[in-house]
Amino acid sequence: LSSVLLSATAGDSPANSSGAPDTQIPDPGLAEEGSPKDLPPASNATWEVGRWSECSTTCGLGAVWRPVRCSSGREDDCAPAGRPQPARRCHLRPCATWHAGNWSKCSRSCGGGSSVRDVQCVDRDLRPLRPFHCQAGPTPPPARQPCGAQPCLSWYTSSWRECSEACGGGQQQRLVTCPEPGLCEEALRPNSMRPCNTQPCTQWAVGPWGQCSAPCGGGVQRRLVRCVNTHTGLPEEDGEQCSHEAWPENSRPCGTQDCELTEPPRKCPAPHSTGEMGDPQTVALQHC
């Protein structure tokens, strides 16, 4: 600054005898005295700040800046401890976006169904946020879509196979197939297995008929009837275990023919005599 000022002063000075302007060399002492570096500190200098800038980011965590200067133009004139911060953090809404998961399996393999997926508002680290954080962005992706629109075919079933057990509960199987894989509705798939022969492994066992209680005129014959386990051969205490079979009779009538009537033999009276004049006569009784 002093050199400029000095140059301007030399230009304004009168000309010398030769007609040329006097050439003056700047005084080193004057130049040092005018240097801002050596000026005494201003006692009334204060810090001045400008307006904050906009946040460095549009979402999440960013920073803002502002100019900070000393009113005297020299940083050393203002107290360092009172210097305002030229920058600070700015917290904006989270950097949110819509995140869609994988589509689920179609609710129906044919005949028209739907598939769904999870759609959430998340931040940069995929942490869930409330939906309103994503409202300023694009429209959320669909969470449901149609699927399985092709017509359904009918299931084919074979006849049932023989039961795996004769009693006590077994299984029967049959073949169930779709004419075209994926074109039969799974919800209507017939069973390929069912229980069979669920009755207990028991049956009625009968003994021989006993003697008739009467030879004629109506009698009764009886026999022993018991419920027996067919696996062990032992009788069951509860006859209800054989309720799946008809109960055989344990008695029947016998000797139903009429009894013949027979008279007991009659005794003939002893011969006696009758007559006159004391002549005995023997009389033979007939039908004796």
State the shape: rod-shaped
Regions with pLDDT < 50 over 5+ consecutive residues?
1-36, 280-288
| Total DSSP helices | 2
Report how far apart the termini are.
193 Å
Strand content: 15-25%
How confident overall, as mean pLDDT?
A: 80
Indicate the structural class.
mainly beta
List the strand order in the largest sheet. 5-7-8
SSE pattern, N- to C-terminal:
HHEEEEEEEEEEEEEEEEE
Q: What does the radius of gyration come to?
A: 65 Å
Compute the number of strand runs. Answer: 17
Task: Estimate percent helicity.
Answer: under 10%
Largest sheet at a glance?
A: 3 strands, antiparallel
Region (Disordered): 1-44
Protein name: A disintegrin and metalloproteinase with thrombospondin motifs 7-like
GO molecular function: metalloendopeptidase activity
Pfam family, one: TSP1_ADAMTS
Secondary structure layout:
Layout (H helix, E strand, L loop, with lengths): L1 H11 L15 H7 L12 E3 L11 E5 L2 E3 L16 E5 L5 E4 L12 E4 L2 E4 L5 E2 L14 E4 L8 E2 L12 E4 L2 E2 L15 E4 L5 E5 L12 E4 L2 E5 L21 E4 L34
Antiparallel strand pairs: 1-3, 2-4, 5-7, 6-9, 7-8, 10-12, 11-13, 14-16, 15-17
Written overview of the protein:
This protein is mainly beta and about 290 residues long. Among the domains are: about 45-90, no CATH class; about 95-145, no CATH class; about 160-195, no CATH class; about 200-255, no CATH class. Helices cover about 5% and strands about 20% of the residues. The protein has two helices and 17 strands. The chain has helices spanning about 1-10, 30-35, and strands spanning about 45-50, 60-65, 70, 85-90, 95-100, 115, 120, 130, 145, 155, 170-175, 175, 195, 200-205, 220, 225-230, 250-255. The strands form eight sheets. It has a three-stranded antiparallel beta sheet with strand order 5-7-8, with no helix packed on it. Strands 1-3 form a two-stranded antiparallel sheet. A two-stranded antiparallel sheet has the order 2-4. Strand 7 and strand 8 form a beta hairpin. The longest helix is centred in the first third of the chain and has 11 residues, at about 1-10. The chain is rod-shaped. Residues about 1-35 and about 280-288 have low confidence and may be disordered.
